[in-house]
Write a structure and sequence with these properties.
Length: 316
């Protein structure tokens, strides 16, 4: 099987999308952008034993890879358009490719974000996913917009990614239902598109939590030249986290673990009613966890325990 057979067999599909007039097989893909919108795009490279376990089910590797890449679009308030895939493979393992491509296309269809092209080379296993999204002109939510007095919010429970990782490594023992919950959070993180879209008119700043809440909120603070004060008591924890993980460990993971792929965002006090309405209309899992203040860095409320500011860093 040469490179072209491989692409034809596993990546080219009969299914068509109306907004993709030129698909896999030409020098470029051509994609239609909705009128009045801007293109938002981002690339992520995922490596075995850094971002996924090489021995995992390839369909799950594909699903997670696409989902975490799409999370960046959600964080800007963008909606998915399409993606490309640069794949480096040590050899053309047909079984692996069959499962990987099936997981990839299935996730792409679920999230309405088709694969429109890519590149395939022989080399150490590496998966690069380049996602493209669309957003009404001027509406992108940036990291740099946080204002003093904004409340700080998250779109769901924190720390699940870290707990999942510990459990998958065999270093955390959990009940059957708790491990099912956490493993699903690891393999199938949900890009927060509906929250992100609603935040276009509410939030002053947003980021997705991939390196850890404190680290990622720290990026908002740095870009916005402000500080964040967190109420550690208000940080939402999943039911299974509360039930099966000791509180101080859970809090550490919630603050400094990564891989949650929920959104952390800030909005002015005047938008809190809209925020509550959004919460009622969507997940009911949105939470206010602190406030933007003058200064720099991320800290806890006076009187609460000090927080560590360490997050995940590839070169740290
Ligand atoms: P070129 O040499 O013009 O860059 P390639 O030979 O690399 O093109 O790829 C041929 C076609 O297959 C292109 O349309 C490209 O986008 C697509 N393609 C290559 N690898 C992949 C992949 N892993 N997934 C999806 N499409 C791919
Ligand atoms: Mg070409």
């Amino acid at each position: 099987m040469d490179e072209f057979d491989l692409i034809a067999r596993f990546f080219k599909r009969d299914k068509t999308y109306a907004h993709v007039p030129v698909n896999i097989g030409d020098d470029c893909a051509v994609v239609d952008l909705p009128a009045g919108s801007e293109l938002a795009f981002s690339v992520d490279t995922l490596l075995p034993d850094v971002h996924f376990f090489a021995q995992d089910d390839p369909a799950l590797i594909a699903e997670r890879s696409l989902r975490v890449s799409l999370s960046d679009l959600a964080a800007m308030g963008a909606e998915p358009l399409c993606f490309t895939l640069a794949l480096s493979l040590p050899h053309a393992d047909e079984q692996w490719l069959e499962s990987f491509s099936q997981g990839l296309h299935q996730t792409a269809d679920q999230l309405s974000c088709p694969l429109v092209g890519g590149d395939t080379v022989r080399g150490p296993l590496a998966i690069s996913i380049h996602v493209q999204g669309h957003i009404p002109r001027g509406k992108a939510i940036r990291r740099s917009g946080a204002q003093i007095g904004d409340v700080i919010c998250v779109s769901g429970p924190m720390g699940d990614g870290a707990a999942a990782l510990q459990s998958l490594k065999g270093e955390l023992s959990l009940s059957q239902s708790a491990s099912e919950y956490f493993h699903a959070r690891f393999h199938r993180p949900e890009p927060q598109f509906s929250v992100g879209v609603a935040l276009r008119d509410l939030a002053n700043s947003a980021i997705d939590v991939s390196d850890g809440l404190v680290a990622d909120l720290g990026h908002i603070c740095k870009a916005s030249k402000v500080a964040a004060e967190l109420d550690l008591e208000s940080i939402p924890l999943a039911y299974f986290m509360q039930a099966e993980v000791e509180r101080s460990q859970a809090l550490k993971w919630a603050l400094n673990g990564g891989d949650d792929y929920h959104l952390c965002f800030t909005l002015p006090e005047s938008k809190i009613q809209d925020f509550e309405a959004l919460n009622a209309a969507t997940s009911g899992k949105l939470a206010i966890i602190g406030r933007i203040v003058e200064g720099e860095g991320v800290r806890s409320l006076p009187g609460q325990e000090a927080i560590s500011t360490l997050g995940y860093s590839h070169f740290g």
